[in-house]
């Protein structure tokens, strides 16, 4: 048994292990090449988060999905670079919106420089992703454009909040379907499509990517509450402090919890959590609250749905790896 990738993904096949390791190394080279600029300042800013590392979950999914066709097809690695560049660009913008100070264990771009630099650097990375995907053909460009539209729509939905007659939890799942699920779906789709897999396989891996992406985001919601900065790579309770309604908070506010302790926690969440003492109290109470466990169960449910989608695929090491990714995502939220 060998290990691949940032999640300690177990793979029982040496050929697959070698292919994925080699592919991830090629992706890293591609990311550095795609973010180069003749302007030294842009070069440093655009490579800030690339060099900080990261989970590289999306490129990993692309490379594993490509195993259902020709994993060495020329478009596979560039497409993995495209999805990671797009993701990195959103992080620069997210940190501005969230006023985050830490990202991937280093100072966020807005903290190191300022908001304008962070936004413009994100735009630069979107432009570079577009340049790479243009070489993959018009179908790849269309797929990327549709995913980008969904991503932005999800961000807008999060910003404006649910309509008065809309269940906040249902609205939240619409948000993360766009913000996170769309790009994960493209990761699976690009890998299979550009490797020449059958259309039915491409469709399965696209749907799988959407579901595992949702589970991944739900696990992040849990980590924002339950982890420390060494584990998550960002400041604990960042979403909580900024009033971003992640799933544990939405469950708390769903009306199913009405003890005096529940009301105290809701009062804290409705108040000013820029106060460090109040933020620490709210974080501690939420860590011990059943709403956090409900969010963990939702994570497991989506991961299980992703696993079920793999049923029609042929049995092979790549299928086993995708099943193991489901376990890895659940483990993050455990």
In a nutshell, what does this entry contain?
The protein is built from 17 helices and four strands. With 334 residues, the protein is mainly alpha-helical. Helix 14 (260-270) crosses helix 15 (276-287) and helix 16 (290-309) runs antiparallel to helix 17.
Walk me through what this model shows:
This protein is mainly alpha-helical and 334 residues long. It has a single domain, classed as Farnesyl Diphosphate Synthase (Orthogonal Bundle), CATH 1.10.600. The chain has 17 helices and four strands. The protein has helices spanning 14-34, 40-46, 48-51, 57-65, 76-98, 109-112, 115-134, 138-160, 168-194, 199-226, 229-232, 238-241, 247-252, 260-270, 276-287, 290-309, 317-332; strands spanning 2-4, 9-11, 102-103, 106-107. It has a two-stranded antiparallel sheet. A two-stranded antiparallel ribbon has the order 3-4. A hairpin with a 2-residue loop joins strand 3 (102-103) and strand 4 (106-107). Helix 4 (57-65) packs antiparallel against helix 5, helix 4 (57-65) crosses helix 9 (168-194) and helix 5 (76-98) packs antiparallel against helix 9 (168-194).
